[in-house]
Amino acid sequence: MSGNFVRRDQQSSDLDEELYSELKAPVSRQGKKKKGGCGWLLFVFFVFAVLLVVGVFYLDRSGMLKSFSVSQLIPSKKCKVLLSLQPKDAQLYLNDELLELTPVGENKFSFSVSQGTYKLVAKKQGFREFCEDIDVPVSGEIVAGDIILAQKRPGTLNFKYFPADARIIIDGNVFKPQEEGAGVGSFSDLPPGKHSLIVRKPGYKPWKKDFNLPADDGVELGTVSLEASDWKPIEIEVTPHNVEVFVDGEKVEISVIREYVVTEPLEPGKHNVEIKAEGFSPWVKENFEIFSDITNSLGPIVLSPVAKAEKDVEKTAANSKEKDKSMDKNAEAAEKKSGDK
Fold first, then answer.
1. Which helix H or strand E contains 326, and what residues bound it?
2. Is 57 exposed, middle or buried (0-12, 13-18, 19+ CB in 10 A)?
3. Strands (E), 201-242
């Protein structure tokens, strides 16, 4: 009977020893690697997710995310725009960007653009600018119409003046108004830029005005009324009578009345007076005082003829001066030409 039964305590001890030996058996390195590798993958995925969330948050806060859209990843349809352009070498801008036009005929062009509302501008120097808004559909073809740039014209100067027989001097040149005798000054052939205007009449104070005339535009000066002055002329008794009179270096208007050369009214005060005539030596009077309450007179004055030798010297000096000017112009032209190269 004893050979057929095992003691309970002995059987339990053997089982415990067998289980303990299995627990003591070393864990394979391959098992460890698998367990550790899975943990690293989870960690990397977690870090990537955090960085992605932070990046999206930054792009959204900075507004950069708004510039991206799914529609940009999908090729968009474009509409073909047809137009006529004159002059044909004008530049065309769409929302301030220069367009590359495709010729499709005489003065006719086309370009393609996505759907939207655009500002269309045509420009060329010397022409008025053209501007309009166009609505472009999703696809298809539209006609923008004819774009014709109007050429700019010279600016106009308009004003009225009193007295009506006053002289009009622009940039040192005497002009006749288009409405002569009516006291209306209208000038339409002046080039754009800066100009000076003088309205003058004997017995009146001259009126002066500097103005800037823009291209394809006008300047309105209103009414110019000359104010009567206490200015007085100079009565000059001089031989010969065919002379020119300069006051402070500026040539003044003169009239010959009997044996006197009478200047236009001049401002009271001290002035330098010079009298010139061809073939005669000039006569100069410095610090000649003009009064407002008396007659101002000079003379009698007899101009001295220039001797032949002096004439030759003057002629030679004049020719030399003209030659120097010509050489200077040639030198400037050569220098400019070399600079262009």
1. helix 308-340
2. exposed
3. 207-213, 218-225, 234-239
Task: Walk along the chain (341 residues) and give the pLDDT tens digit of each residue.
Answer: 444 444 444 444 554 555 455 545 554 444 444 445 567 777 777 777 778 777 766 766 665 555 444 444 445 578 999 999 999 999 999 999 999 999 998 889 999 999 899 999 999 987 888 898 999 998 888 888 899 988 777 778 888 888 888 889 999 888 765 555 568 888 877 888 899 999 988 778 889 999 998 877 788 888 898 888 888 899 999 999 899 999 999 999 898 888 899 998 888 999 999 999 999 999 999 999 999 888 899 989 999 998 754 555 556 666 666 656 665 655 565 555 555 54
Tokens matching residue 95: 């929302």
Instruction: Tell me the β-bridge partners of 244.
Output: 276
Is residue 161 a contact partner of residue 186, using CB atoms and an 8 Å limit?
no
